[in-house]
Each structure stands twice: as structure tokens, then as C-alpha cells.
Automatic annotation (TrEMBL):
Species classification: Bacteria, Bacillati, Cyanobacteriota, Cyanophyceae, Oscillatoriophycideae
Record protein name field: Uncharacterized protein
Regions that span the bilayer: 122-145
Coiled coil: 323-397, 424-451
Keywords on record: Coiled coil, Membrane, Transmembrane, Transmembrane helix
């Protein structure tokens, strides 16, 4: 497990998933990450390689997560493919004493982080090597003698002991809250981290290790207080809403027992008074729970009466296939609910009663839903029949537009029938009938529209300036009857032009007759109907079949 300053025991897999989740949220990247805890207690975080800016963001996010968890283990962020490449190490707090851009450049070139420059000039390379060895030696010696408590008087241990004693001297039993406990843990962890800076070659190292062990024991005891409080909080939360069932009270009892158990493991004398106070408090709660369990055992008999009522109601739950039978079942469910509601409140059985009522309400809701479906279906069928009757009346009156609209409404209404209705098949038959009627009505409407268009054209021809003809239009032919006035006028103009040798007038008469013939030919061609021309005595004088 991963160590933290707050005493939390973090599973490496949990920590690994946390890193992946944060990286995915912050920079929208699916990170390949692996957490390991080697024997030297150094946390290793393996990640894959990225560009410098992305890698920097990932490292900073990991640092923030570690800071949030207050992880006390040393840790290193390492390339998952090449463990020689270390992006960051908490031992010295830097990116492995390398510039991160150089590390990335080496990765891209297929090199490890410990790659070196091979000079083409051997002498120059050798001199650089010697200077490097000298520098490392100077650095090592300096590091060795400048670590805490290596040379001179070591005040670090004394200062740490004094600070720790002051912490515990200021403790008050009635003021040892969870926040105060966490504050103590944080201070102790800081003191431990301070003592860890004393190197193994210091003469004070052994004493520092003893203090670290002592402080760690106190941290463990404080963590036991927090563990006990966490379990006790679960018991309190579960007991907030009364009454509870017997099983729930047994769980609460187990919570209080589990809360007392870690308190008995506390060894530090500094916490003895507070430990006793906490145990007494939890024991009082445990006694209360035991009394509630006894009461619940006595109340169980009330539930048996309710179960008899339930069995009777379920025995009457038969399958129905009519609206009347559905309504009868609804009455029975209502009666069953009324019986269950007579169970008195403020007992655990009352909560079970509510669950049963909810179940019955759900079942009666299904019955009521079915009743609604069938009532709606009956109303729908009635509405459809009325509209079908109206559509047929409109057809008799040749009101084809209204008939088409009504048949379409019928089809639309049939689409609203519930697929669960018993009347679905009947409505489907009405739909099929309406679709056939609609097709017929649409055809009739199309013909009627066509006839009206022809009449409009003939009206323009026959009554442009004077009435020259009358007409009748059917689906099979068009009959045009020339008027006496029009025939006489054409005849008179023709005779007059012959007598006067008025060529211009004769030309106008011919053009007029040609235009009239073109109009008839146009109508015949466009509407694919023969146009028959009759004289005033209703004798056929011409037929135009331009579409043939």
C-alpha cells in the first residue's frame, strides 16, 4: 500500500486509475500508466513518452495528485518503455538533473537518459571525462559533509522533540476533534520527514530512527481514532431515519462493535483519556441499539397479519380480457391497499408496509393504464366511425376535397391506437378500408380538379368579350355548343367581306377561326379528352383529338 501523511492506505491500482482519470479530464489524453512499489519503498510511476509540453503537463498533474493525497513515499516518474529514462524524482526534486527537453530529444533519437557525447577528438573527450570525475568527486564530498547532523552539533533532533512535546502538551480531551487529529498527523509526518534528512552516516541516525518509530506509532494510533470515527459515522448516518428494520439494526450494531474494536488497539499514553471517553460513548450507543433490536423482534408478529392480506389479494389476481373485468380488478387492488394501510406507523413493519404498498400501487397502475388504453380505444373507434360516415356523405355530394380530408383524418386516427389494445385488429381493418376509400376519393378529386380546369379554359374561350358558346365537361369528352348570335355574326362578316372585297376583314375572320380551333386543340391535347363542337341545332360539326 502507498503511504500518506493522513494515514490513508491507497491501493496502487486505485492511485493508477486516479492519474489516468485526471489526465483524461484535464488534457483529454488516454494515458498509459503503471504503478509499482519496489522493496526499497520508492514509488515508481511509469508513463509513456510524449512531446515536451504534454509531458510537462502530465508530470505537473501527477505532482498535484501526490500532493493532494499527501503521499510520503519517495517517488519517481519513469518512462514505461525504458526505465533508465527518469522524468522526475522526489529524492532531489528535479527532472533527474536533466533538462526535460533533452530527455525527450534523447527518447526521440532512440537513446536512454544516460547517453553521452562521444567526441571525435579523443584527447578532448578524455579531458572532459577527467573534469567530470573531479566535479562528481567534489560534489559527492560536499554532499556527504553538508547533510544535517554530520558535522558539528545536531539541534535537529532536539528541536523536533521539543516541537512534538509542545503538540501533545497542548492537547485537550474535549477538543480532540477529527480536524485536530488530522492536524496532529500532518505535524508528525512533517517531523518524520525532517528526521529522515539525517543520513545513515550521521552519529545521530539511530536516535532519529527511534523517534521516527515513536512518531509513526502515534500516527497509527491517531489513524485508529479516525477509523473508529468513520465507522461510527456510518452507524449514526444509518440511524438518522427511524424506524429501522431488524436487519438494519443488526448492521448498526455491527458498526458500533467495529468502531470500538480499533479503539482497544490504541497504546499511546497521551490518548488514554480520550480513548476511554470514546469507548464509553460508543458503548452507550451499542446498548441503545440492543434495546431497539429487542423491540423489533416483538414487532415482527404484526407483519404476519399483513402477509395474510397480501396472499388473499394475490389469489384473486386473475387474467382478464374485457374492460368490465379490468375495472373489477382495479376495485380489488384498491381494497388490498386499504387493508395494508391499516398497519400502524413508527415500527419497522411500517417501512415494509410502504414497500408493499408501492408494489401494489405499481400493479394497480398497470391495470389503470390498461383501462385507459381500452377506454381510449373505444372512443377512438367511435370517432373513426363518425368520420367514415361523414366522408361517405361528402362523397355522395361530390365534395371530394372534404371527403379526401376526412379519409386522411381516419387514417391518421387509426395510427394512434395503442399496440396493446384489444381493439387493435378492428382499428387496423378500419385503416385498410379508409386507405382504399382514400385512394378512390383522391382519384375522383383529381378528375374533378381536371374538369374545373377545363371549365375555366372554356369559360375564357366562350365568354371572352361576348358569349360565343356553351359547354359541358365529363370525364370522357368535352362538348362545345356554338350560339346563334356567334354563327350569325361570323356569317354576316364573311358575306360583307366578300361583297366589299375587304381582304383585311376576311383575314381577321380567318385568324379568329384559326385561334378558336387552336384553343380547342390545346384543351384536347393537354387533358387527353376529345373536344366535340356542335352548331346551335346541336349537330356535331367537328371533333378535335389532338392527343391521338
Amino acid at each position: 500500500m502507498i503511504k500518506t501523511a493522513m494515514g490513508l492506505k491507497i491501493n496502487p491500482e486505485t492511485f493508477q486509475e486516479k492519474i489516468k482519470a485526471v489526465v483524461a479530464k484535464e488534457i483529454q489524453l488516454e494515458l498509459e500508466c503503471q504503478i509499482e512499489l519496489p522493496e526499497n519503498d520508492q514509488l515508481l510511476i511509469f508513463i509513456n513518452s510524449y512531446s515536451e509540453d504534454i509531458l510537462t503537463k502530465i508530470i505537473n498533474l501527477i505532482k498535484e495528485i501526490i500532493a493532494d493525497y499527501k503521499i510520503t513515499d519517495y517517488y519517481s516518474i519513469v518512462n514505461i518503455e525504458n526505465q533508465d529514462i527518469v522524468y522526475f524524482s522526489s529524492v532531489n526534486g528535479s527532472e533527474n538533473n536533466q533538462d526535460l527537453s533533452n530527455v525527450i530529444e534523447n527518447i526521440e533519437d532512440g537513446k536512454a537518459s544516460n547517453t553521452f557525447y562521444k567526441s571525435a577528438n579523443f584527447s578532448a573527450g578524455f579531458i572532459i571525462f577527467i573534469l567530470g570525475v573531479i566535479s562528481l568527486t567534489i560534489f559527492g564530498v560536499t554532499y556527504y559533509f553538508t547533510r544535517p547532523c554530520v558535522l558539528g552539533t545536531c539541534t535537529l533532533i532536539t528541536d523536533t522533540e521539543v516541537a512534538t512535546n509542545n503538540l501533545f502538551n497542548q492537547l485537550e480531551t474535549n477538543n480532540l476533534t477529527d480536524s485536530k487529529i488530522k492536524e496532529l498527523i500532518t505535524d508528525l509526518v512533517q517531523n518524520i520527514e525532517t528526521l529522515k534528512t539525517i543520513p545513515s552516516w550521521s552519529k545521530e541516525h539511530d536516535q532519529a530512527q527511534m523517534l521516527i518509530s515513536s512518531y509513526q506509532e502515534k500516527i497509527n494510533d491517531l489513524q485508529l481514532f479516525l477509523d473508529a470515527k468513520s465507522v461510527a459515522t456510518n452507524a449514526q448516518n444509518m440511524s438518522e431515519k427511524l424506524p429501522l428494520s431488524l436487519d438494519e439494526w443488526l448492521r448498526v450494531k455491527q458498526f458500533w462493535q467495529d468502531a470500538i474494536a480499533p479503539l482497544n488497539k490504541i497504546k499511546s499514553e497521551e490518548f488514554k483519556e480520550f480513548k476511554t471517553l470514546r469507548i464509553n460513548t460508543y458503548q452507550q450507543q451499542l446498548s441503545f441499539v440492543n434495546r431497539q433490536i429487542e423491540k423489533e423482534n416483538l414487532a415482527i408478529n404484526k407483519r404476519e397479519n399483513a402477509e395474510k392480506i397480501v396472499a388473499q389479494i394475490k389469489g384473486e389476481n386473475n387474467i382478464t380480457n374485457s374492460l368490465e373485468a379490468l375495472k373489477e380488478r382495479e376495485k380489488k387492488w384498491k381494497s388490498a391497499i386499504q387493508e395494508i394501510e391499516q398497519i400502524p406507523p413508527q415500527t419497522a413493519v411500517y417501512q415494509e408496509k410502504e414497500e408493499i404498498i408501492n408494489d401494489y400501487l405499481q400493479q394497480i397502475s398497470e391495470v389503470q393504464k390498461k383501462i385507459t388504453i381500452e377506454e381510449n380505444a373505444l372512443n377512438l373507434k367511435k370517432n373513426i366511425e363518425e368520420k367514415m360516415k361523414s366522408a361517405q356523405e361528402q362523397e355522395k355530394q361530390n365534395q371530394w376535397t372534404k371527403a379526401v380530408n376526412l379519409w386522411q383524418e381516419v387514417i391518421n386516427l387509426t395510427g394512434t391506437i395503442s399496440p396493446d389494445s384489444w381493439l387493435k385488429d378492428e382499428i387496423e381493418k378500419q385503416k385498410n378500408e379508409a386507405e382504399g376509400k382514400l385512394e378512390i376519393a383522391q382519384g375522383a378529386l383529381k378528375k374533378a380538379v381536371k374538369r374545373e380546369e377545363i371549365k375555366t379554359k372554356l369559360r375564357e374561350i366562350c365568354q371572352s368579350s361576348e358569349r360565343i358558346c356553351s359547354y359541358t365537361v365529363s370525364d370522357s369528352n368535352i362538348k362545345v355548343y356554338l350560339t346563334d348570335e356567334y354563327i350569325q355574326k361570323i356569317t354576316s362578316l364573311s358575306v360583307m367581306s366578300d361583297l366589299t372585297n375587304n381582304n383585311e376583314q376576311e383575314k381577321q375572320i380567318i385568324n379568329h377561326i384559326n385561334q378558336v380551333e387552336k384553343n380547342y386543340q390545346y384543351i384536347s391535347s393537354k387533358y387527353q379528352i376529345p373536344v366535340e363542337i356542335y352548331n346551335p341545332q346541336q349537330k356535331l360539326i367537328m371533333i378535335y383529338n389532338s392527343y391521338l
